[in-house]
Write a structure and sequence with these properties.
Layout (H helix, E strand, L loop, with lengths): L13 H16 L20 H24 L4 H27 L3
Helix pairs in contact: 2-3
Length: 107
């Protein structure tokens, strides 16, 4: 078999060594300002009321259910069953959040 693409150069030039050192400095030696596990990646507004938080959680669950539903359309077999089980869990969580909202404002 004839190889059409040649092998890349070995890369032992001063320029390549400098690039390696920059990469090591960037990713391995300098501390990163990552969020603490307590803070997480999403922090709600401190002034958000309990009712508004539940309403937003309900909206987020609606989005998650729609995303799972669309994802299941292109699947079949065990993968589709798994996505449908996720949809079921999302819908159960949404029912509980909606019930909590109903308890805040009894009809």
């Amino acid at each position: 078999m004839v190889k059409v693409t040649p092998d890349p150069p070995l890369g032992d030039t001063p320029r390549d060594r400098a690039a390696v050192h920059r990469t090591i400095d960037r990713y391995l030696t300098k501390p990163h300002n990552l969020p603490t596990p307590e803070a997480g990646y999403f922090t709600p507004n401190a002034d958000l009321s309990f009712e508004d938080a539940l309403a937003r959680a309900s909206d987020l669950l609606n989005c998650a259910a729609a995303t799972a539903h669309e994802s299941a359309d292109g699947l079949d077999g065990p993968s589709r069953a798994l996505v449908h089980s996720v949809m079921h869990l999302i819908e159960m969580a949404k029912v509980m959040v909606d019930r909590s909202l109903d308890c805040l404002h009894p009809q």
